[in-house]
Structure formats: structure tokens, C-alpha cells
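Notes from hallway chat w/ T.B., transcribed later so I don't forget. T.B. wanted the structure written out for a chain they're using in a teaching module, and asked if we could keep both sequence and C-alpha cells in one place. Agreed to drop them here.
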Amino acid sequence: MLLPYLRLVRVGTLFSPAADVVAGLCLVSAAWSGDLARAAIASVCVYAAGMVLNDHADRTEDARQRPERPIPSGQIPASVALLLGATLLVGGVLLAPDRGWYAGLAALVVAYDYLLKKRLWLAALTMGTLRAGNLLAGAVVATGGGFPEDRAALAIALGYGLYIVAVTLLGGFEDDPTVRARAVVGVQSVPPLVVSLGLLTLPERTPAAWIGIALALWFGSRVRRQGEQWDQAAIRRSMTWLLLGTMVFTSLVCLGSGRPWEAVGIAAAILPARMISRRIALT
């Protein structure tokens, strides 16, 4: 059956790593090329590998806390999951135009899944670095392998990294039934803030920034309405919105970089991602 494998790779999240690469190329005003298309596909492979290897690493814990997941439920053998994850990871690096950059991303994926996520703060920093590096991958490939020196690109990557740090911390709270509502609300205030501030660094910032601020206020109102009732289900719902929000951010980055068609393309991908999330969890 295909469904367990779609659940294993969190198929609804796979639009996001490709959108990162598109945002990166827009930040440096690069034209589309075959190398950039390969980079987007490579990012999807590495990201999917991270999801698979994450479940492989957590299979014993998931047997207690999430027995419905594909590996502990017996729908996918652990050995098959490991082989799939390794194949996606190696395939992504081999496909990438800049193999050195993607080998670094792959190393972070393995380190996160099997070692670093044991401490939540270290896991959050690693994941933030990983996704910021994935966004910069588009800029790196577009400039022929050179690290981007554009201040706006670096500011956006830093803001995106902080966004992902907050989302990762929130994901850690999902497994802690004793977490305080104040901590949950505080962490969720970071992504809207960095989105709004980051968009102000872009060349054509005004429309993108206003849209970002409006969406940040909307999300903030949702958080406030939840009040003190932050159980695991509520945190999971908020995680879904924030994960989908990564594509809102990258879409607005494209718009603020003067690339409306790329912005529309990423925004259009949010709808199928949201539809998939109703059937297959993003976390």
C-alpha cells in the first residue's frame, strides 16, 4: 500500500523544501536553469529522507507514544524504512548541482535524527540551521557555488532559521503534557515577528510586508483565542499552520524580491498541502 509510505515521508510537507530553493534564487535575482530545478528536487529528497530517518530513529519511542505510525504499526519494516531514507539522502546529494553544500545538509539531517534531537534546544538550533541552509541553497547554486553576500538574503535566511527554531521548540512541547500555556504562546510569537521584520529587508518590501503583517495579526488572534487550553491536540493544530506558514513566508520573499510569478506558484502549493494535511499529518 502507498499510504503508509506517504505518511512516512510526510508528503504534505514536501512542497516546502522546494519552495525554499525558489525563494533563494529569487533573493539573488537569478534566472531559472536546469541546475536550480535539480537543486529543488534534491532538497525534496533530502527533506523526505530526514522524515523517514526520523521515524526510524524514534521507532522504539513511537511504539509507546505513537503506535499508529507506519513503522511501529508494522506497515513498513524498520529495515525498509532505513533503506528508503538512506537512498533518498544519497540520491539527493548525488542529484544536487552543489554536492558539497547538500552533503552538509545531509550530515545535519543524520546528526539531528540520530543524535542532536535528544536535547530540545540543540535540536531546534540544528533544524533552524538546516532549513536556513536549504533556503540559501537556491542562492548558492544560482551564484555558481559562492556563499551569497547579499545582506537581504542573509537576513531572510537568519529570520527563516529563527522561524524554524520556534516551530521545532513547539514540536517538543507537543510531547510534554505539563508545558505551560505561557511558554507555548511565547514560542508561537516568534514566527510572525521574524516574518514581518525579515520582509522589511527586501528590495520591494511594501506589498509583501503588509501581507505578512496582516497574516501575523491573524495568526496572533488565533493563538489568543486558544487562551490557556494548550493541550497536545491544540499544539498539533498550531504546528500544522506554522508548517504551512513556511510557504507563506517563502512566497512573500519571492514577492518582495520582485518575482510575483514564483510567489503565486508557491502560494498555490499551499492549498494541496493543506488538503493533504487533513488526511496525512504534517508532524
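Follow-up for T.B.: The chain has a mean pLDDT of 91. Might be a good example for the class.
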